[in-house]
Amino acid sequence: MNIFRKISLLTLIILTARVFAIAQVSFTVDAPRQVIQGNKFNVTFILRNGKGSAFQEPKIDGATKLYGPAVSTSFSSQWVNGVSSSSTSEEYTITYRADKAGKYDVGAAKITVDGKAYSTNSFTLEILPPDRTASSGQGNGGGVQIDNYDSQSAGKDVSANDLFVRINLSKSSAYEQEAVVCTIKLYTKYQISQFMTTLQPSFNGFLIEELPISPQLNNVEHVNGQNYMVAELKKCILFPQQSGDLTITSGNYDVTVVQYESIRTMFGTMRQPVEKQLSVKSNSQKIKIKALPTPRPASFNGAVGKFTVSSEIKPQVLKTFEAATLSYVVKGQGNIKYLKAPNIQFPAQFDVYDPQNTADASPAGNNVSGSMTFEYTFIPQYVGKYEIPATEFCYFDPSAGKYVTLNTPKYDLSVAKGAGTATQAPVQNAGIEQKNTDILHIKVGNLDLQPTHESFVSGFTYWLWYIIPTLLLSAVLFYYRKSLKERQNLALMRTKHANKLAKKRLKQAKTYMSANDSSKFYAELLNALWGYLSDKLGIPVSELNKENISSVLSSYDVADEIVKSLMDLLDRCEFAQYAPELADAGVEETYNKAVEIMDELETIKKRK
Q1: Of 39, 122, 331, 534, which one has the greatest count of Cβ atoms within 10 A?
Q2: Does the fold of domain 300-416 match that of domain 132-290?
Q3: Averaged pLDDT for residues 320-340
């Protein structure tokens, strides 16, 4: 009986260990990165899975504590695959007022759980100066402010000071091939509901290395005494290919901003968002590119930056008719992806193949860092001792303004006899002729050749050489003239390719749908719909709106229910794109509806 009890107790302990999971204690901070001077803001310190005591808050310079900490607790539990887990949360919220503009390093908060001390990570808080337009009044009479909806009233003109695109360069001048970081940003005081690129930026005279960006209004900058919401439109590293004054253009964009209209209701005054469409024209930025100093060293091959160089031969033991490799590796930062292969002097007795180039480089900070490897494959043909002389690598250091020359070591090679039929290498100046053993002698004497002759002109094959090319040329000319005539009709070409382009974008939207990325899905689906309707109906982008679309579809006798379904679909996509947390979860239904409407419009168009 005692043995049975022990077994039961052991089984219960094992099951309990499986059922209940031990939660990890953590202490973190949730704080804004930026606030505007004079505004209030909250900092929340979160303790998970523990009962805290002796809470110590950090001091925030440039801000005044108004009240707190306000403490709140929560509890949650779940059961997954037979394992039960639970968690608790304690939140300490403190309210501050931003008093002085500047960047401040905020230290860690501390708390004690079961006698053990925990700390949060430190963070940086930026307090931006107040917008100078705040002193000019509120509402329609004053300037627009990002944190004041009353100043963003409907009907107010959106000036070039309220919405613009700017080009920011990391340097005002640079040498040829020197890295320059270019960032194109959108500055706005209004929320953006729709953004479409109509003309891409241009970088004539540069090679471009794209940098990843997140084009969202998730940052605030203080420019010329005013605060703007900022989104990066493009960021890249430029390598100028010529000297002189080079120009960069920002591109053209169609933007829909959100203003607010005040409506009086029985519950009081409410704000209703009103969209306004604008076109942002391209602006330009010049940068002075300096020519590289002269005279240039003979070994200079266009490398600009800071580099090191090394080389290696494998295998160490060389034999005739067996391949070997000389690896020439350049490491550093600069225009490393565009380096040219060095000129290495191999002995004439080696068969040398063109080098294989391998770039392993990526953007790092304001430049491109990594390595470029040149692999030379060579095959010794003769036994003997040979030399590969030292090779110079010269680069220009823009920070020092001078050329730097590096050298790889000289290689003294000894080639042994391999498995092939190689012979001893010829002796220098000994007058000994080296004969090849792998080429047969020319056969001489009577070869018993018999002359033959046929009349080719009289055969049918001869005339086919004239008939077939003539027919093919006629067909090509007919097709070319027909294609040229169609291409002159721009409206026809846009209509002809509208469905094809839309299907490509729908394919990308389906990829986001499969990845459960609803935000990108609705954005891509909306772009596909607008682009399809613009091309198919021949409506310019600047005039593309729901009223014009509805009017054109009605002129084609499209059924009202199809037009209504299309308008509802556009509304749903726009709503879901900018309020994904409030959107319906049926992304697959939305995708199928878009495909169905496009197919229906294609059928109606063909009937017309």
Answers
A1: 534
A2: yes
A3: 94
* Residue 8 · residue 65 · CB < 8 Å: no
Phi then psi dihedrals of residue 143, to 5 deg: -75, 160
8 Å CB contact between 111 and 118: yes
pLDDT tens track for 286-318:
999 999 999 999 999 999 999 999 999 999 899
Residue 212 token pair: 């990843």
Say if residue 373 is exposed, middle or buried (CB neighbours under 10 Å; 0-12, 13-18, 19+). Answer: middle
pLDDT in tens, 122-152: 999 999 898 877 655 444 446 888 888 888 8
Q: What is the pLDDT of residue 486?
A: 58
Using omega within 30 degrees of 0 as the cis cutoff, is the peptide bond preceding 295 cis? yes
Tokens of 428: 């220098």
- The DSSP call for residue 534 is H
Q: Whole-number mean pLDDT of the chain?
A: 82
Cα–Cα distance, 424 to 396 (Å, whole number): 44
User: Of 217-221, 398-402, 489-493, which gets the smallest average pLDDT?
Assistant: 489-493
Residue 267 has pLDDT above 90, yes or no: no
CA–CA separation, 554 and 297 (whole Å): 72
Out of 218-222, 281-285, 349-353, pick the least confident: 218-222
pLDDT in tens, 453-486: 565 555 667 777 778 888 888 888 887 777 766 5
Please name the CATH architecture into which domain 132-290 falls.
Answer: Sandwich (2.60)
Cα(313)–Cα(412) distance, integer angstroms: 11
The answer on pLDDT for 423 being more than 70 is no
Give CA–CA dist 569/549, Å, rounded.
Answer: 13
Residue 272: what residue type? Answer: Q
Angle at 162 between CA 158 and CA 166, to 5 degrees: 125
Q: What's the CATH number of domain 300-416, 2.50.20.10, 2.60.40.740, 3.50.50.60, 1.10.3720.10?
A: 2.60.40.740
Q: Evaluate whether 245 touches 288 at the Cβ level (below 8 Å).
A: yes
How many degrees, rounded to 5, is the angle at CA 36 between CA 31 and CA 40? 60
Topology given in CATH for the domain delimited by 19-128:
Immunoglobulin-like (2.60.40)
| Per-domain boundaries in the chain | 19-128, 132-290, 300-416, 490-607
**Contact of 205 with 240, CB cutoff 8 Å:** yes
| H helix and E strand count, the chain | 7, 31
Q: Supply angle C-alpha 58, 60, 66, rounded to 5.
A: 95
Tokens 């959100």 — which residue?
258
pLDDT for res 135? 57
Q: Which of 224, 409, 174, 444 is nearest to 311 (CA)?
A: 409
Q: Whole-model pTM?
A: 0.59
Distance CA(504)–CA(355), nearest Å, equals: 39
- DSSP letters, 553-572, are HHHTT--HHHHHHHHHHHHH
Residue 74 CB partners (closer than 8 Å, separation 6+): 88, 89, 91
Q: Can you list the positions of beta strands (E) in 409-472?
A: 411-416
CB-count exposure of residue 156 (10 Å: 0-12, 13-18, 19+): middle
